[in-house]
């Protein structure tokens, strides 16, 4: 049987347009927009230590987004050009065609459907262009908004990895959700 050529992750699209959003690389020009939510303890709670200064945000942009931009996007509102969050693929495992999904949205822009719009756009690229097979995400048990987003994105709850990560000083359980390519095809039908 002929071996099918796998697409390389370096070919992941850099810009993705949706109705209201442009997903595009994060740059240092986004520092103010990112600092706005990264410096808010409530907003940063589940994802990273609260940023104490704009310099810290710039350093994070440099280390996380500029050094390894593959699969990482700023979520820009097309109507204003403001960056209202990020969405990205982590732990991209090309041989096994799976990756982890992560995201954060500025609180002021929650509950308007922007996150699900970004998730669906990324799923489309992931399954249809990259031809990857499994997209997973995990949340701490109390993070209901994130769990709801995973479910709305068609992810199925798989189970709990006990005491998997250190979170704010203690070892906590993580709940896994995933969508596989056949689920995605079913969703489209
Ligand atoms: C997780 C997170 C991105 C979810 O954001 P969100 O605002 O709940 O998700 P969406 O942008 O998809 O908005 C969905 C809500 O908008 C409503 N909505 C309004 N207009 C809508 C539209 N046009 N389309 C879809 N939904 C719409 C939905 O009804 C839903 O409301 P509900 O929460 O009352 O059910 C956000 O809470 C966040 O950034 N949290 C902190 C970071 C974090 O926890 N990251 C994950 C770590 S595991």
From TrEMBL:
InterPro entries: Acyl_CoA_acyltransferase, GNAT_dom, N-acetyltransferase
Domain N-acetyltransferase: 21-179
Molecular functions per Gene Ontology: acyltransferase activity, transferring groups other than amino-acyl groups
Superkingdom: Bacteria
Segments crossing the lipid bilayer: none
Matching Pfam families: Acetyltransf_3
Protein name: Acetyltransferase, GNAT family
Organism, scientific name: Pediococcus claussenii (strain ATCC BAA-344 / DSM 14800 / JCM 18046 / KCTC 3811 / LMG 21948 / P06)
